[in-house]
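Please review this one.

:::
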Amino acid sequence: MERETASLSDLRQRLRAGVELFNRGEYFECHEVLEAAWLEACGADKTFLQGLIQVAVSFYHLRRGNFPGSSRLLRAGLEKLSQCGSRAEIEHVEELIAALQPLPEQIAAGSVSPEWPAPVIELRISSGS
């Protein structure tokens, strides 16, 4: 039980750190932090983390002008986030998905600037969790 609690605490710390990086526009670094958590996660947590990672990498590609890669990864990330639904750790997951939903097609059509502002991801977990 202690190991399980430590793992959950570690997962939350990495999620917090990854989301903070995402919200600062540091998408590659966000990917690195969340990937470490993803490697240890299982079930719905693993799927949710993979979705967040794909969204982050999508914005990394968007910033670099790789529109096909950005669009493809954002579609995949949204699919995974949609499968998981709301999460205890993240506020307004459904709103996040809704805000991002039209973006893959807009990116593919070339109607989105590489500087398109990413939505802010809000956490429910505090720094002490």
About this structure: The chain is about 70% helix and 5% strand.
